Amino acid sequence: MAHKKSKPTILKFDSEEDVAVALAKYTADLSEKYIRDKGSFSVVLSGGTLIDTLRKMVEPPYKDSVDWSKWLIFWVDERVVPLDSDDSNYKLACDGFLLKVPIPSGNIYAINDKLSPDGAANDYEARLKHLVESKIIPISDASGFPKFDLMLLGMGPDGHVASLFPTHQQRYEKKRWVTFITDSPKPPPPRITFTFPVINSSSEIAMVVTGADLANTVKIALGGGLEPGSTPLPCMEVSPEGGLTWFLDKDAASKL
Ligand SMILES: O=C1O[C@H](COP(=O)(O)O)[C@@H](O)[C@H](O)[C@H]1O
Predict the structure, then answer these.
(1) 11-248 maps to which CATH number?
(2) Domain coordinates of the chain in residue numbers?
(3) Any atom of ligand 1 within 6 Å of the Cβ of 158
C-alpha cells in the first residue's frame, strides 16, 4: 500500500561542523525515544561522508549518555569487498564510529563478504527475514516491508542514495528487500543495497548532505529544479512513513 508523502523538514546550517553537532543531537534524541518506547533502536548506516559527519556521537555527552547496548546496526548499502578493505562501508563505520562505542558485536549486521553480490543480497535479506520472524525488527503495517527506526542517508552528486543509481533498474525494485548491482557507476562496482520499499518503510530518515559539489543536486531535489519531463533522481524518491529531515550545510544549500 502506498503511503502519503510527508513534507520534509529542511535544516540549513552555517557549516559542516554545525551539521555534525545537530545530527548527533537528533540521533541521540531518537535513540532515547525509541529505546524508551520499544526497548531497542535500529539504525541503518550509509557509507561515504556520513560516517565522518556522525563523529560527534562518539564524543561527550553522547558517548556516555546513549544506551549503546540497545542499538542494532545495519547498512543501507554495502560494497561486496572483504570487510577489511578500505572500500568497505563496514570498515569505514568501524574505524570512524562503531569501535568507539560499546555496541554489542552481535547487534552489528555486516554482510557476508565471502559471497557473490547476488548471494550476499539473498543472504542479507534472509537474515532480515529471520530478525522479523524473531520479532527483533517489526514489519510495517502499511507496506509489509521491514521497518527500521532510523536510516542515515548520504547522497551522491548524481542523486543516488544507498546504491540506487539514476540509470539502473534497481531503483524501481518493488518486491525484494535487498538487491545487488555489479556495475555501480561509482567504484567499487559490486554492491548490495536496500530497495526503496524498505527504505521508505522507515520510521525516520535523515538525508545528510554537505559540500558545494552537491548544491545543484539539492536544488533539483528540493528547489523544484527538475527539468520538465525528466526522470526524478533517486534522492527524490526518499519518503519514509515517519519524518524526513534534510541536514544541509551552507554550501550544499547555496542554490536553494
Ligand atoms: O557509494 C556510496 O555513496 C553514497 C554517497 O557517498 P558520499 O561520499 O557522497 O557521501 C553513500 O551514501 C553510500 O552509502 C555509498 O556506498
Answers:
(1) 3.40.50.1360
(2) 11-248
(3) no
DSSP codes, the chain: ---PPPPPEEEEESSHHHHHHHHHHHHHHHHHHHHHHHS-EEEEE--TTHHHHTGGGGSTTHHHHS-GGGEEEEESEEESS-TTSTT-HHHHHHHHTGGGS---GGGB----TTS-HHHHHHHHHHHHHHHHHTTSSPBPTTTSSB--SEEEE---TT--BTTB-TTSGGGG--S-SEEEES--SSSSS-EEEE-HHHHTT-SEEEEEE-SGGGHHHHHHHHSS-PPTTPPPPGGGG---SSEEEEEEETTTTTT-
Q: Please identify, by atom number, the ligand 1 atom nearest to the C-alpha of residue 78.
A: 16
For 22-60, what is each residue's pLDDT tens digit?
999 999 999 999 999 999 999 999 999 999 999 999 999
Ligand 1 atom, smallest distance to 89 CA: 16
Pocket flag, ligand 1, residue 47 (CB < 6 Å)? yes
- Whether the CB of 156 sits within 6 Å of ligand 1: yes
Residue 184 CA, closest ligand 1 atom number: 1
**d(C-alpha 181, C-alpha 78), whole Å:** 10
Centre of ligand 1 to C-alpha 51, Å, is: 10
Residue 186 CA: nearest ligand 1 atom is: 1
- What's the CA angle centered on 162, arms 187 and 231, to 5 degrees? 95
pLDDT at 225 > cutoff 90: no
Query: Would you say the CB of residue 48 lies under 6 angstroms from ligand 1?
Result: yes
* 114-142: pLDDT as tens digits: 999 999 999 999 999 999 999 999 999 99
